[in-house]
């Protein structure tokens, strides 16, 4: 659609401003008018048009986002697959660190590897695209678990210990639980050879527009290249990349933690 006039452009941007204000929690006509610096009559006219088009809902003089936006949100998500959207970020992160970078999503009690950028150190590791590993014992898995309750952590931890493919050195439950609380605080998780002997990684979660964790990324290398001090130093960069991908999915900061 071509916008042909300055007046039309102004109306369009004012309408979008109304939608964005409602998304931020501005609830009603007086509040919208004050927030946007528009007259009450202009705000009412814009809001009424948005309600009619399905972009807003109005109930008891309170506005909320409408069904049309939900529909468009799902369409946008389907048009930009996560792996395709994340790929440039993963490639850049691997180039900067020289290490292997993974993108994973939850699959029951396991993680599914959606993408892998092999590092420049010539290392071989078990991970591969389409492979599954126990969620609780991998760095990406722990990042996926950051919003879960302790009961869910323990259930996944127990499942991980019984996983036939476990080749690492898991920590005792009490130490593991303490680590998880620390990871929640720092928004990043570490794997100190718990899934595969000699392999360390640092991971961070990817969130969607609803602030829910839907995926995770990790930087992975052999322990000699990835001592814990380096892992801690890398954590802010891994978090920043995960947040950049999250931003592309509509995330605007904050978590949706249950505990």
Question: Which descriptors apply to this entry?
Answer:
259 residues, alpha+beta, Arc Repressor Mutant, subunit A, Beta-Lactamase, 2 domains, 6-stranded antiparallel β-sheet, two-stranded antiparallel ribbon, 9 helices, 8 strands, elongated
Can you characterise this structure?
- The protein is built from nine helices and eight strands.
- It is of the alpha+beta class and about 260 residues long.
- It has two domains: about 70 residues, Winged helix-like DNA-binding domain superfamily/Winged helix DNA-binding domain (Arc Repressor Mutant, subunit A, Orthogonal Bundle), CATH 1.10.10.10; about 170 residues, GAF domain (Beta-Lactamase, 2-Layer Sandwich).
- Strands 5-4-3-8-7-6 form a six-stranded antiparallel beta sheet. Strands 1-2 form a two-stranded antiparallel ribbon.
- A hairpin with a 2-residue loop joins β3 and β4.
- α1 crosses α3, α2 packs across α3 and α5 runs antiparallel to α9.
- It is elongated and about 65 Å long.
- The termini are far apart.
